[in-house]
Each structure stands twice: as C-alpha cells, then as structure tokens.
Amino acid sequence: MNRPILFRQLFEHLSSTYTYILGCPITKLAVIIDPVIETADRDSELIKELGLTLTYGLNTHVHADHKTSTGELKKHFPKMQSILSEKSGARADKYVAHGEKIKAGNIELEARATPGHTNGCVTYVNHAQGMAFTGDALLIRKCGRTDFQQGDVHLLYKSVHEQIFSLPDDYILYPGHDYTGQTCTSVAEEKKFNKRLAKSEEEFVQLMKNLNLPYPEQIEKAVPYNMRCG
Ligand SMILES: N[C@@H](CCC(=O)N[C@@H](CSS)C(=O)NCC(=O)O)C(=O)O
After folding, report:
1. Is residue 228 part of a domain?
2. Given this model, what pLDDT does residue 3 score?
3. What residues contact residue 85 under an 8 Å CB cut-off, 6+ apart?
4. What is the pLDDT of residue 217?
5. Fewer CB within 10 Å: C terminus or N terminus of the chain?
6. How many domains does the chain have?
7. Is 185:139 a contact under the CB 8 Å cutoff?
8. What was the pLDDT predicted at 196?
C-alpha cells in the first residue's frame, strides 16, 4: 500500500501567507514552500515533531510582502538548501529551471515557470498527489498583481493559461496567500470562476490596470532581504 505523504498547510497572519510542508513518510525527508521569518520557530518545531528533516526550502519567488525564513531554517536544518528560479536574479543555494524536478524521498515536485507577477515565479506541481503550489501566480478567484518587480500582465495571463489551467481539472491548487479565509481550490473551479483569469486577455489587462492596490507594507525591507537570503 502507498502511504500518504505528510502534508501541512500553515498560515502567517501578518502577510496572510501560506507555508507548506511536504514530507516523505518512509525516508522522512521534507521540503518547505514559502516559509516566513515570523513563523520560523513554529515551523521548525513542527518539522522536528513530525520527525522530518528538511532538505529543501523553496521560495516560489522573491516575495515583496514578507521576509523568507529559508536563511533562519538553515540554522535548524544545516543540510537544507534554499531554492529559487534561475530567473529570480536573487541569491539561493540552488536554482531551478522550467521542467526540473525537485525530489525529497518519495516527494517529487515539477518546477513550472509561471512568470508575470515577478519574472522568477515558479509553480511547483506534485503529480503523484494531484497538487500544485502556485505561489502568487494564481490566488483563489484572483491572481498576483503585476505592478512591480518586473510584473507583466500579458506574461501572467499566458503563464496561468499554459502552465496551470493545462493541468488536470481535479488537481488541487494551493496559493501563496489568501485574504478571505479560503485555503485551496481546483483547476476546474479556477478555469470557471476566477474573476480575472477566466476572462479574455483584453479584459484581464484592463482589469489588472485598474486594481489600484496599495503597495505591501513590508516591501522596502522584504525585497532587499529576500534578494540576498540564501
Ligand atoms: N496588504 C498586503 C499586500 C496585499 C498584496 O498586494 N498582495 C499581493 C501578493 S503579495 S506581493 C497581490 O498580488 N495581491 C493581489 C490582490 O489582488 O490582492 C500587505 O501589505 O502585505
């Protein structure tokens, strides 16, 4: 019998960020996706309680709204390597290219480049469990903004349609944030109900131009920190 993977979805309330832990039940090797500095102690304690050893700390992109805790987590798990897209232009221990696979025991994540929110955004797909971690490329019923960090509205539309909406309808999508209390969605739901991306490209571009969102509160500290944090 195939034993299920260990999986946790964790929330950091200052930036409304989701952090994910995926662990192999046999080898006890694990990865963490988008960990936040404020919750580094909570996350490392949980990983230890679950008997896991972190091998990789993945940032889906260079975050603008919070500091990553991959640097902090390396103090608890010295063998852990931080990972970012090769297109991120930031410091990391290892860089991933589109199509590359990240493995930790029986956990396998396919890196799919989904630029547009930033140029180094990656969606990680776990085909065995039918899950994808979209970072800020796709949020539940909406998507990441495109007004800073090399944001590109046309590229985001293409990324989501070609790399996320092309996944099987029943794959569960786990976002980088949610501001309304929701936790996950599915490819079928987002293709039908996403208020931005279920529209034509022209409508999407107009809508994104008129979002008028204030900049994230931590942007000035977070971006330079995340650019140099390995
Ligand atoms: N108020 C938050 C920032 C909210 C925000 O801008 N979120 C980003 C993702 S983090 S850079 C985004 O793309 N939002 C899209 C949207 O439509 O909400 C803070 O100050 O941290």
Report:
1. no
2. 77
3. 61, 95, 96, 111, 113, 120, 121, 122
4. 97
5. N
6. 1
7. no
8. 98
CA nearest ligand 1 atom 6, residue: 216
Give the single-character DSSP code of 163: I
Which ligand 1 atom sits nearest the alpha carbon of residue 149?
11
Residues of the chain with pLDDT under 70: 1-2, 230
Tokens 């929110």 sit on residue: 117
Residue range(s) defining the domain that contains residue 89: 6-213
Residue with tokens 């990983």: 47
Supply the residue whose CA is at minimum distance from atom 13 of ligand 1.
144
CB contact at 8 A, 149 and 62: yes
Residue 45: count of CB within 10 angstroms of its CB: 11
Give residue 43 CA to ligand 1 midpoint distance, Å: 23
Could you tell me the pTM of the whole model? 0.98
